[in-house]
Amino acid sequence: MDKTYEKKFPVSSLTISRVQFGMFPDEFTFNILIDSYLKDEDYKGACSVVEEVMFQEAFDSSTTQILSLFALSKYLATKPECSWQMERHMGAALLLAGLKQENSVGLSAQLLGHALIGKVEITRGIHAVFHNMPLMWTPGYLKRGLAVMERVCNDAGHLKLCKESLDSVQMILQDLMMTPASEKAEEENAEIQTVTVDDDDELERAKLPQYMARFKELNEQLQTQGKVETRSLDTLVSVLAEDKLRTCEEQDLSQYEKKVQAWETERLQLVQREEMMKQKVKQERMSIKSAQAVQ
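Given the sequence above, the corresponding structure tokens read:
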């Protein structure tokens, strides 16, 4: 909302959200906000908008999906130092946006998203994953990431997974296996916070060796089948944007123009209704005055 005011967008660019209980930018305005930050090469700012899109679960527009993945991949390419909360938010955004794209970019984003969320799950517990987040509370995000790899292995088409995403998953698994959960939580928190760990979390941590073994097996299969994309996620998303973004934006603009026309029609109807109500009240007052004059 604050960024909408900063850019001086009209009130008509806002929408009522039943998810966060308030008024927030609509998808078209979200896209303009993300695009403005991208043009300034402010990838962190763009990701802050994508984070809000994630909270609103507003990834229905293809333009929003592509711009969000573009912003996330650009920011990740800078190798930022992230808190566990930031990793959770970026992981959720990658996952939710990636689920909307049935291609190598989408699957690579899903894989990385699952891994980042899985890292939070292992180090801080499943409650830290879904608290105030549009994410499932079912444990096993690392397992679901491996399921993405398995899907690509079994695919008869041209789907591939980005080597960069695979390397990130491997590093996360290695890091989790080498560092005890208690130490990891302490490292990532400068201030004292309560870490809620239950039996399901302990069970999930116990599966780390199994996940690592399965990852190595699937990674080898992907290599053998030639289903590892050597280009970076940033490059893949850039290619996707070049191929699809213009067409998606044209469709969005056409739909937005229709929406503006509908808003104008509604505005005129409201003005007409207001005028009718004024006339009705005026006539009622005149009738009362006439009745009083007769008496």
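The chain has 13 helices and four strands. Try to locate this feature in the token string yourself.
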